[in-house]
Amino acid sequence: MTLRQAPGPGAAVTEDGTRRIRVRLRAATLTPLGLYGAAVLRIGVSGLFLLGLLREAGHADRLWGPGSPYTPELFRASVQAQGADGRLSWWYTWPGTQSPDYFWAAYVLAVVVSVLYLLGWHTRLMAVLFAFVVAGFYMRSAVAASGFELLSLLFANYLVLCASGRRWSLDARRAARANPAPASPYEELRRRVVTVLHNAGMALIAFQVMVVYGTAALYKLRGTSWRDGSALHYALRLDDFATFPELSDWLADQGSVLALLAYVTVASQLLFPVLVFIPRLKYAVLVVMLGTHLGIGLLMALPMFSAITVVGDLVFLPTSFWLGAARMLRSARSRGR
């Protein structure tokens, strides 16, 4: 007669861990995460890109069109040197499209797509068209592309995977008013595929933001000016980036304060990928990042870059935050009325 040995505490811990993994994997395929965050990202990215288009409307032909000094020959040479695909600038490199009429048609199309995507009208289709449009304008300005344009391109591509039209959109309003359709045999599979793609897109955006901060911190640590705390002093002395010269000059003389801010900036960027997943420290590090971006945007004349990085940070805010913000907005409206 053999006696069966009772499972020890180690087996119970292993079984509990396996059960948690199964629950999380099931949730990842059935529960779309951060739907409100995806909607905010959609509105933020498309709104900023639309603002950039309208802001440069008077110079659009010189920046992206046939009137640009970036000639077709120079464009093809630079694209080949980078190993990129110049066909993404469809209004400029396709045969017979190098004319003002084609460019202005593409410009108007970009504005219309940005508006419709911001409003969430047929969001899935608009997400693809928006990524196509952003890629085209980015390629045309690749020689002088800014951080704002690069992050807009990356976020636009990741948002194609996301179900960003389920909240705060015309699609969501239409779905709320429509009668429920009969379930098809493939509805469960469709839901799982859409959910997996959405969660993957949100994860890619979060990972991209962490990569930006991590690499920025490592790059700063390579320079002596950030290690000795003098980097912000020299940055504020640059006339080309001085929005308010008198204020920049006054701040540049606050040596101790600037050194402390430099160390806080580097530390928060370096530790961001860890701190943002600790509930008690998440909001603190996000506030530090917000202050950093506001300082860059206001004092160094880089408002668009600061704004797109703030939009990227919003992916880490939970649904409860957005629901609370919506309640506060409705309450403020009712008091105003």
Report what the structure shows.
- There is one protein chain.
- The chain has 337 residues and is mainly α.
- It is built from 17 helices and no strands.
- The radius of gyration is 24 Å and the shape is globular.
Helix percent reads over 70%
Overall SS class: mainly alpha
Distance between the termini: 83 Å
Q: pLDDT below 50 for ≥5 consecutive residues: which ranges? A: none
Reading the helices and strands in chain order gives: HHHHHHHHHHHHHHHHH
Task: Describe the main β-sheet briefly.
Answer: none
What form results from the Cα inertia axes?
globular
User: Number of helical runs?
Assistant: 17
Spatial extent as radius of gyration? 24 Å
Please give the number of β-strands: 0
Mean pLDDT across all residues, rounded?
Answer: 87
Report strand %.
under 5%
Brief overview:
The protein is an all-alpha fold and 337 residues long. It is 73% helix and 0% strand. The mean pLDDT is 87.
Note the main attributes of this structure.
single chain; about 325 residues; mainly alpha; 17 helices
SSE order and pairing:
Blueprint lengths: L8 H22 L4 H21 L4 H5 L7 H11 L7 H4 L6 H20 L3 H18 L6 H13 L10 H8 L9 H36 L1 H4 L3 H6 L8 H8 L2 H21 L3 H21 L3 H11 L5 H18 L1
